[in-house]
From TrEMBL, chains A, B:
Protein name: UspA domain-containing protein
SUPFAM superfamilies from the UniProt entry: Adenine nucleotide alpha hydrolases-like
Domain UspA: 9-157
Provenance organism: Vitis rotundifolia
InterPro entries attached to this UniProt entry: Rossmann-like_a/b/a_fold, Universal_stress_UspA, UspA
Superkingdom of origin organism: Eukaryota
A Pfam cross-reference name: Usp
PANTHER family: ADENINE NUCLEOTIDE ALPHA HYDROLASES-LIKE SUPERFAMILY PROTEIN (PTHR31964), OS05G0357525 PROTEIN (PTHR31964:SF125)
Gene3D superfamilies, per database record: HUPs
Length: 166, 166
């Protein structure tokens, strides 16, 4: 591990509103990042695209500018909340350098794009990233990323006992 | 990482004839296993089921006992060869404890079953585990395992430059 320790690794961790991604981050911090190394954890949150929302029946809804503004404000608040929670977890590992990225778009495109652009050494994510219905049609975000991202991908599931307790 | 260092982790690495799984093992040894820890790497090779072979058109072929014996002998030689190559890679990390498992069956069932039975902390595998045609119908082994195994799953792809050089 000498080579990696000397230059430090860049580890991209995709976070979202779900507890599973926070569990994935915690697991990564405890099991992957190396203490007293130059490892950098890049926290990435993908804000869902705002312009067009479609219903289950395929109907496309366009909103007025006022509604759009308050939706954007809500989206930003959610993004900030997720990022703050993730940073708090990282702060328990004071020797890890942390960067934060918030990007708009489909989670699958955002994550794959960021992994490519940043040239990260590893991508870490929870196994859930969509609701049940969307996942049934589109496949999971993690499956998509595991297939399309070039770097190693670590998919972390939250153990059931932990999930039930929270 | 104090907790993990004290008890050591059990990391299951699925290996097969492909260079990609050997790359995944190397990557794991360099980036995941902790030097001077009590980590154990369990090498797992799944021998394809022998009894029945089916053709692309769905025809099922049953072989005579002589042919079966020589096929079994060939399968064992391949399994031993893969395991030896994997052990050689591990021997470059002398502080890592290594165990080896060879089991017969569909790779997807064997890997998921072993991860469950051994209660491993992590599963590591290459992203390819089937030929192109079988993968198109069945999905990749790694996707299946990522969906069905409870522990964190690390999927490692061989970089194209490495793949081209070998």
């Amino acid at each position: 591990m000498a080579e990696d320790e000397s230059k430090g690794r860049k580890i991209l961790v995709a976070v979202d509103e779900g507890e599973e991604s926070m569990y994935a981050l915690s697991w990564c911090l405890s099991n992957i990042t190396i203490q007293n190394s130059k490892d950098t954890v890049v926290l990435l949150y993908a804000k869902p695209p705002l312009a067009v929302y479609s219903g289950l029946d395929g109907t496309v809804y366009l909103f007025s500018s006022n509604i759009m503004l308050s939706m954007e404000s809500y989206r930003n608040a959610v993004a900030e909340g997720v990022m703050q929670k993730a940073k708090n977890l990282c702060s328990q590992h004071s020797d890890i350098e942390v960067e934060a990225m918030i990007e708009s778009g489909d989670a699958r495109d955002v994550i794959c794009g960021a992994a490519e652009k940043l040239g990260v050494d590893m991508l870490v994510m929870g196994s859930h990233g969509y609701g049940l219905i969307k996942r049934a049609f589109l496949g999971s975000v993690s499956n998509h990323c595991a297939q399309n991202v070039k770097c190693p991908v670590l998919i972390v599931k939250r153990p059931k006992s932990t999930a039930e307790n929270k």
